[in-house]
């Protein structure tokens, strides 16, 4: 057909094939064909573009280096800090979950620096243990009376360090 010779798109053979096959299986009037060519052409171009941004996704730092002991690094921009979650939502409008999916990271990939989460959990432990610290006024006098009560619970305190 003469129309084929004028076609300037990126995939002339593919478009021709699709159109030819479509026309063979559907009842298409001649005046519909230019629209059809346009539509197929645009669809193919859109497909090609849609995959580009994903291929160009390059982390600001290598993923292996994005988690350090005292900091985590944002793969989007290279920002480095103790916690990524807030940075991701304010800077990139991403939730932690979307960020992990975007970069194909496992769901247990840390978004908080390991050292910082350790500190927080040990602080919580210290606070928890500290609550038991309200002793009856101790001293030599207390120790004298204390020897009389044989509380079986006392043995549990020895396990607290484990
Ligand atoms: Zn960032």
> Radius of gyration in whole Å, from Cα?
34 Å
Number of helical regions: 8
CATH class of the largest domain: Mainly Alpha
How would the global form be characterised? rod-shaped
Q: Tally the structural domains.
A: 2
- Summed over residues and divided by their number, the pLDDT gives a mean of 78
Number of β-strand runs: 2
The helix fraction, in percent, is 40-55%
Q: Provide the CATH superfamily of the largest domain.
A: ROS/MUCR transcriptional regulator protein
Element pattern in H and E: HHHHEEHHHH
Strand order of the largest sheet: 1-2
CATH architectural label of the largest domain = Orthogonal Bundle
Profile the largest sheet: 2 strands, antiparallel
CATH topology of the largest domain: Arc Repressor Mutant, subunit A
Q: Give the low-confidence spans.
A: 142-147
End-to-end separation: 84 Å
Overall SS class: mainly alpha
Each distinct ligand: zinc ion
Strand content: under 5%
């Amino acid at each position: 057909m003469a129309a084929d010779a004028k076609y300037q798109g990126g995939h002339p053979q593919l478009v021709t094939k699709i159109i030819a096959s479509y026309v063979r299986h559907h009842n298409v009037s001649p005046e519909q064909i230019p629209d059809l060519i346009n539509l197929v052409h645009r669809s193919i171009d859109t497909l090609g573009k849609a995959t580009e941004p994903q291929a160009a996704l390059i982390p600001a730092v290598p993923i292996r280096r994005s988690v350090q002991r005292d900091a985590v690094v944002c793969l989007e921009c290279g920002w480095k800090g103790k916690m990524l979650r807030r940075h991701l939502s304010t800077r990139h409008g991403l939730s932690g979950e979307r960020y992990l999916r975007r970069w194909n990271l496992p769901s247990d990939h840390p978004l908080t620096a390991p050292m910082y989460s350790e500190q927080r959990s040990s602080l919580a432990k210290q606070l928890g243990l500290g609550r038991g610290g309200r002793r009856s006024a101790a001293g030599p006098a207390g120790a004298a009376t204390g020897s009389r009560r044989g509380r079986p619970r006392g043995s549990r305190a020895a396990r607290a360090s484990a």
